[in-house]
Design goal:
By secondary structure, the protein is mainly α. Helix content is 86%, strand content 0%.
């Protein structure tokens, strides 16, 4: 139950239109623009957001099979598509297909990093259980 709360909290954070908040609250907008002016910080943030998302999803859907792999990464891709759609609807700027597609590739890369981390955490937990038993 607790892991589902954090999953929903994290998804809300991913989907929340931060750029729109920046237009409503100018000091936040200046900080947001300063942090994400460089393209590399944008990539790092997307990678981080989706890596953590997959680690959280792996607490709910155990990462032990091909079906789990497809389910978890599929959910991450759907959330990424939804995020890009929301950005387009709320920002209504020059977000084009190429920028959105690139963001989705970065999101997917972050999801793969999260999958590797989740598998590592899962195997360490299993090792601890076996060593205690």
């Amino acid at each position: 139950m607790r892991s589902r709360f954090w999953i929903l909290f994290w998804i809300f954070g991913i989907l929340f239109p931060m750029a729109s908040l920046g237009r409503l609250w100018p000091p936040f907008g200046r900080l947001f623009n300063a942090l994400f002016a460089a393209e590399w910080t944008h990539w790092i943030m997307h990678t981080f957001l989706y890596a953590i998302l997959v680690v959280l999803l792996a607490q709910w859907i155990r990462p032990v099979s091909a079906k789990a792999f497809i389910s978890i990464l599929g959910l991450a891709v759907v959330i990424g598509c939804f995020q890009e759609g929301l950005q387009w609807l709320t920002v209504k700027s020059a977000i084009g297909w190429s920028a959105s597609a690139f963001d989705l590739v970065v999101d997917f890369g972050g999801a793969l990093i999260g999958w590797a981390a989740a598998r590592l955490l899962s195997s360490r937990r299993a090792d601890r259980v076996v060593s205690r038993g």
